[in-house]
Structures are given as structure tokens and as C-alpha cells.
Amino acid sequence: MKLGYFFISPHRHFVILVVNLLGSSLVSSEEITVQGVGASFPAEVYAQWINNYMPTRRAFTNVVMYYNVTGSSKGLKAIQQDEFVDFAGSETLLPANASSNLKMLPTMAGAISIAYNLPEVKSYGFLLNLSREQLVGIYNGTFTHWNDTTFLQTNPGVILPGAEIIVLARQSKSGTTNMFTTALSAFDENWKQQYGAFSAGTVDGGNTPVKWNPRAVKYYGKKNSGMAGIIASFEYSIGYVVVNEAKKFDLSLARIENKAGHFISPDDEASIQKALDTYFRSSEEHSFTETLVDIPAEGIYPILGFTYMVIRLKYTERCEVAKELLRFIQWFTTDDYARTICTRENMVPITNELKAKIKREILLHMECNGASLWNMVAEDKKRENYVEEKWKTPVAILIPLFCLILLALFGYIIYQKLKLRKMINNNEWNIAIENILFYFEDRGYTKKSKMTFFKSIRSFKSINDIPDGEMILSQILQWPGRWKGQQIGIRLLNVPDFAHIDQKTKRELIWMREHILHSNVLRFYGLTEIDYNDRFAVNEYCSKGVLTEILQDGKYNLTTDFKFSLSIDIVSGMSYLHAMGLIHGNLHSSCCLIDSRWTVKIADWEYCRLYSIINPLKNPLAWKRQINGIPEDKDFIVSDFWVAPEILASNFLKFPTTTSDVYSFAIILQEIFSRDEPYIELADSMSIDEIFNAIIFNNLRPETNEDTPVQVRQIMEIAWSSMANSRPTFDQILKMLKHANPFRKSVLDSMMEAMEEYTEHLETRIEERTNELNLAKERMEQQLSRYMPKFILPNLISDQPFVVNNHLDNCFLGVELHEFKQFLAKRQMDDVAAVLKRIHFLIEDKTSKRNVCQIASETCTWIYLTGIENESDKTTRVVTIAHLALDWLGIFQNSDPHLQNLEIRVAIHIGNLHIGIAESPKAVYVFGTGLLEMKDLLNSSKPSKIRISKQVQDILAADKTFLIDEDATSSNTCYWLTSRTKSTEKAEEGNVSPVVTENCKTPVKDTKENQVERKEEIPLKNSPLHKDSQLALPLEHNSITAPPIQLNLPQIRKTSPLNKTSNKIFPLEQ
């Protein structure tokens, strides 16, 4: 349609379109369904009528119409019994007892053809002539073979075969059968008397006929299409079928003798139209159900008939359906295109006289709830015409607006052409090197990103003059920089032979810059010249580097969703490039860059196109190998692992294709899900050449990871198939990947999820480590509390200031092994170590239940004190120390087998003590007269004796709990603690066994449960109770060796108060 005609004479469908756009509010949302069933004779025409009528109503109502082919008899039965069947198609008349509310109106006329399958006759191009008697004789069994002489009379010169005639009829009850048998009855009086006109087929759809002569008719077909199919399949067969179905199967149609003695073809439309004109010359004289069979006139085909539409005249409900049915009838009786459809399907539309009669006698009398349907439809049409009139004003506005849009579009096209020409003339594809501010992102040498800015490298004579230039070039794939506010990167891949660039090449470069825009394709900005005639591509910069680095970096936890996201990004980019007519040609994982947002971008896609511009006759891959300096005698290199085998087999003579890109992606997909290089499993067993030979000739492919999903393995297998034509496209791969991972996440989302999982794991680990640290700190404090006062620990561990503390009237306890040097001389070192462990363990066992603190320790000397941390009186402190001294003395007097020939000297004293903390290094120092007097008193004590000072003697004597001896033989009176009183001993015997608890202070009853708990504890290596410590020895309890108890103790420094060489100042690390 020309544009002028479109504006001047807008078509009705354009009106409907405008109504759809501007008057959609008038369309009813409720669906109106009009249902028809019945004969197959008009089925093809009805289907096309419905398909063309419904669009004309779509602008005003939501109507749905359909017609099901069931046969004439079933159609009549349905409309009589089912109120939801709105019309029926039939060639059979309604029974006499049918409701008067049902009316039959003819919709079209058609011929019943006699189709046959005689290969010999068809091959000569003859059409068979059948007389009226011959046709009746075939169906009553008179003529059984094709070479019967009667056929030669009507077909002179035609050689007919001697084969038996295979006669076919309809299996089901049919209006077509009724029309055909009506014609046979008109042709022969005997047939009329014996068989008559009937529509029946076989009994219950079997092979037993209801009316047909079984000796003549032996085969039956379902519907017209079934009849035509059987005739086409069976040679020497004949049957009756509608003309359009016969032509679909290219069947030959017999010419039948009419009443005037002329042989007429059934597809002669003029003869059918002549029959209508002749018979309905005066439409008042005939009813709608008169037959057209065997009209006595020249040139008329004798087997004709109407096909009818059976409708209801009056409705009591479903008025909308009734109106739509009436409008449908109005449409196909008046619309020119409906008549064209009818003629095209070898049917003849009804005459104008018959249309007028149908309107006058049926349509005008249709009612719904007593109201005229014709008037109701007329009112609807007025409203719809008003709507159609409404479109004129909007269209009057839209047409100028549309013209303005066209003008704007043409202007934009012209502007773009002028802009393109300007960009070409100004060489905007060429980016001057001095306009780029370069920097070096040193990811290879430091963990943090370190940017070193410098002036344009144009200031150097050559790129080789840049300091450490070769090192930089070998470390980076993109040289980052800034140009016009954009962060760009120069891919250090040279594009040679571009000294003279013609207009076509410039246009191509501008097109790539302006039109290749996709989130997964590295944007191309242009070319830049570094050295003379050495041009490099300038693209957007991807700060995360290449995909290979991410895959092989163990610090990234790549989940399956993350791998799917990477794969989908690559496929999306390649699908876009192929849609734009670009073939990558050299796709591999190093061409997949990752930007700051973790989006994968396809790089190097422009090189194949640029190489093709330079030399269209040479394979870009072969040229690139030549440029990169690969020797001609070198067959393959590692980067060829991604090249399709068909290209490898051709020695790079075959050009890259879309299927070769798919193969390359399959190798990348294997890299992503295995996180390793392809063919790495063969690195130690095969050479590179052997691997490539296996790829080409033995269909070798990389080994897939066991964790790779099954769907991904299937994609790999079909994508790296050796048959290029069987590989899928990237669009198909994209659908398969999305189907394999329906809950798709972007790469950034997957990375964030992985980071969240890592953070959550890190928080859990920190919490675990914190708990371990707190437990170790608690245990350390418990251990240190044995060797220094508790109030010092916070100041020692933290940076809190500490003022020297003066403590008066502290009670000291000293213990020393007697003649330990002689003991060392007589024993092996292992025995000495075992004895020391035993002594230390037993001392700890006794002191753990007393509120005392060890302030000094040497190999054979220990000094404890009490009274610093508690508010107990002096008597309580002295009594506590006295009990502890007697306990220790008892250890060495109980004939322990480990302690044979060993004695101790013990002393108890009361005196002053001063405690402070040195700042740097952190250390505790202890001094005072009490400590010195304690050492002097210990040196004057005797073996297996407890020497006490005068102050201690006064307190213990007043307590009356202990027995004290006085020695006045020397110049100074000496006092000796000998034992407890008897009552005190009984009380001490009732005390609980000194089992050490976690805080090492509270005695707990030594039960079996506690023994089990102690067995499960594991001593720390630095604990004085550990088996490898010099301060520990397994405890024998009730003749059973008790396991060591787990305690934590910080490592002892050389100057610690626990070291045997310590003096008065005891540094201790924080």
C-alpha cells in the first residue's frame, strides 16, 4: 500500500487499530463464545470465515468462535439437544419432528466430485467420463472391473486396466452421503426404489454397511479428508468427496453426465453458478431446502447441493451470543472477502436473491427475550460507528505529528551521516598518545594497589626508553591511563601495517567505536600510535585483570553460582558480537577481563576484524602468529589450546567461524569449573605436539572436574564437538546455562555472597580464637597467681601504671634441699630430673590448697609468702604457713621411693616486702628486709627441721596448735617447729585430699568422677605439670599413677622469678 493511499483512503483495519489504541475502554472484558459443530463439507470455508471475522470485532468485544467437524447427523443432534451449541453445519435436512424454533439457511453451494485413482489414465492426461448409468452401476455392483465395455463407450481411445474397481463410501452418517445418494436416486429409478437417498454409513463405525451393497462397496473412509486419503493410497479406487479435499490430494476428478447428456467437471464454477441462477430465478417459488441435484439445463454439473447452517430463531437467554451469531451471518452474506474465500475453496456463494430471502424470512425474525435481535444489532452498530467516527479527530492530529516524526527521523539520519563524515575527516578514531595520562598499577609487586603517575610516554624517544619498560610490558595486559575523563587501557597487542588507512577502514573503526556497546564486551575507543606506524588498540580499563588470575587465585572462594555468572557473562558478550556480525577468532581466558564491578568483558574482539581489513585473503590467526614472531617451523604453542580442531588441522589456513568461537568457549567453561589450565593433567605425560595431535586426530578434550554440574558437562561436550556444524550457537548456550542455573546471580552478587560467607566464617574463627585467647589468658593468670600476687597481674598484662606497694608483716616460708650438690654427684641426670619433677609436683600439690604465693624459685630452693592479697590477721597467716611447712616436711619423711636420701631445710619468718613493676621491658621486681632475713634464717636451718623466727614463735605459742622446741645452746636462741598437737593432727587428717581445681585454690573432694576428669585433661607443653617439663612428675595416688593435670603457663624467661638464676628483680614479659 502506498503512503498516500494510506492517508487518503484509510482501510477499515486501520480504523480498528486506532479504536484499539484510543477506545479500548469500550471493549468488553467478558468473553463471548459462539460454538458450531457439524458437516465437513463446509468446514474449510467456515474456519477461514471465523478467522477473518473475529479481528473485525476485537475492537468492540471479546468474541471467540469455533467450528468442530463432527458430521451432519451429529451436528443436527447436537443443536437439538445442547443449548450451548449455537449453530450446526449440515447437508442433511432436519427431521420432520424437529422444533419449529430451528431454521435452516443455505450458506453456500458445492459439488460432490467423483475422484478416482487410475495411474494409467492419469499418465496420459485423460479425464474419465462417467455416464449416469455407469456411476449407479459402480455403486450397485453391476460394473466390477475397469475394462468393462461400457466404460470404453464413454471414453473412446482410452486404454483402461483390467483391475477390479475398489469402491469407497463414507463410514459415518454424513450429509455428503445424503447429497450423493440423492443424485443416484435421480439418475436411476431402480436405485431410488431399492436404496433411495440416505446418509447412513456403517453399523457402529465398523465394516458392515447400513444401506450400501456390501458386494459393491468394500472400503469406508472417515470424513472427506479420510476418503481422499484412501483414494490416493489405493490404486483403481473410486469414491465421492468434496472438490477442495480431492484437490489437496491431487486426485483426478471424473466428468459426470448431466440430464442434458453433457459431461461436466465438478470444479467448473460457472456450472454451479448457472445452477443457482436457474433454480432461484424466482426465489419466491422455492423454499430454502430445495435440492440442486440433476437440474435439467445445459452446462450444469448434476451432483450439486447446498450446505446449511442450522440456527435458533428465538433465544430466551445468552442474548450477546445470539447477537454475535447474527452479526456473523450478516458478515459472510455481505462481505466481499467472505465470497472470495468461498470461491477459493471451490464453493459458490449464495445469490443476492437468496440473501434477501434469508434476511426477510429468518434474520429479521430472530429474537431474544421477545426483543428483535436485528434491532439490537443495529443499535450496537450505531454506537460502534460513533466510535469509528471518533478516530477521525485523533488521526487528524496524529497524521501531522507522524509526518513531523518522519521528518525528524530523516533529519536524524542525515545528521548521523554528516557526523560520521566529520569523525572520519577529523580522524577521531586516532587517539594522540600525548593526550593520555598513563600510570602503572603495580599489582604484581605489592599487595596494595600502587599507582605511579608520569608524563605521557611521548616525551621519550621510544617506548624502550621507559625505565624497566620490558619488565612492565611483561607484567601487565592493559596499560592503564586516563583520556578525556575515561579510564582507559592500552592492550599491548600491536596492529601492524596501518600506516595508510583508507576511508573504508576509518568508517569501520568509527563503527566499532560508536556501535559495539555491550556490558560484557570491552569498549573500543580507537587506535593510538606509540612508535612510528605501531598502532595499539585503546579500550576501557579492567582493574581486576584477566579471568585466569581470578580462577587460579586460591584466596577467592568461587561458588557454583559465581562460576555460572562468569560463564553467562562470557556467553552474553559473544552472543552480542555474533549478532553484530563479528567473529572473535582467538577467544581464550586471557581475553576475558574483569572490571571493578566484577563484570566479565570480552577483549581483543576487534583484532580479527582489523586483520581482515588489512588482508581479507589471509587467516587472521595465521597473520597474528606471524606478527607475534612464532617461527614457521613451530607447529603449535600453548595458546592454541583454545583453537578449534578444524583450524588446527588446516594449519591455520581455515578462517575462524562462529562455531570455532563456540569451541573456544567450551575450553574456557572447563577452566572456570575446574579452576585450572586446560590439559594440565597431561603436562607430565605428553608433549605439546602430542597433545595437539591427539586433539586433532583422537578427539582429545580437557578433563572435567568431578564437581562440575552435569548440565555444564553436557554443554561442554556438544560445544567442543569435533563436528563444527553440530555445535550450538551462543544464544542456545545462554538458554541452556540459564536453565541449568535458573536462580541466576550476577558476578558481583556472587562475589558479594562469597565475601559474606567468608566474613561469616572469619567472624566465627575470630570468635573461636578470642575464646581460646581468653581461656589461655585465664589459665595464664591462674598460673601466674601462684608465683606473684593477683593484684599485680592487671598492671603487668596491661599498660596501667603501677605504684610500688609496701607490704608489712608478711609471712615467709622457705624450703631448700639439703646437700643437693652431693646428690647431683651421685645420680644420673635423668634420675635427678625425675626427682626434681616429683618434688615440684608434690610441693604444688600441697600449696594448691593454701592461700600462698611463690615469689622465688631456684633448682633446690623455694620461697612462699602469705598476707599480701587477703585481709586475714597475722596469726592466720602464720598458722597457714606453719601447716604448709609441716606438710612439706612430711613429704620427705614418708619414705617416698623417689626421695630417698634427700632432706629439706625449712624456715618461717615474718617481715616486710616491697613489690613494683618496671616499665620497659615489662618486669616485676621484689625486694625488702623480710626477704633477706628469710634467706638468712633458711641458711641457718637444719636438715628435716623447721626453723622459725622469734615473731613466729610468739604467735604459734599463743595459738597452742603446734609444738615448738627452743634451742638456747648458741649465742642466739633458735626456735624449731616440730609438729602439730594431737587434736590438730586429727583435724588435718579429716581434711580433703588436695585435688587441684581450675582456679588452683579451692580443695575438692577426691572422688572417682574427679579422677576421670583429670585423666581426660591434656597438660600444656609449658605447664610445670607437663610430662616434658622439668617441673613436673606424675603423681602417685593410692598406688595408682595419676595422669598429669592440664595447666597453662607462659614461657619462662631467663630473668623470670621462676628461673633458678633470678635474684631480687624478676622481669616477666607481658
Automatic annotation (TrEMBL):
Stretches that traverse the bilayer: 395-415
Statement: the UniProt record of this protein carries the keyword Ribosomal protein: no
Every Protein kinase domain range: 460-744
One Gene Ontology term from the biological process aspect of the record: intracellular signal transduction
Subcellular location: Membrane
Region (Disordered): 1051-1070
A cellular-component GO term for this protein: membrane
Protein name stated in the entry: Protein kinase domain-containing protein
Tree of life domain: Eukaryota
UniProt-listed InterPro entries: A/G_cyclase, Kinase-like_dom_sf, Nucleotide_cyclase, PBP_domain, Phosphate-bind_PstS, Prot_kinase_dom, Ser-Thr/Tyr_kinase_cat_dom
Annotated keywords: Coiled coil, Lyase, Membrane, Signal, Transmembrane, Transmembrane helix
Gene Ontology MF, one: lyase activity
Biased composition (Polar residues): 1053-1064
Protein's membrane topology: Single-pass membrane protein
Coiled coil (UniProt feature): 752-786
A Pfam family this chain is assigned to: Guanylate_cyc
Signal peptide: 1-29
Family under the similarity heading: Belongs to the PstS family.
Keyword check for Membrane: yes
Lineage of producing organism: Eukaryota, Metazoa, Spiralia, Lophotrochozoa, Mollusca
PANTHER family found in the cross-reference section: PHOSPHATE-BINDING PROTEIN PSTS
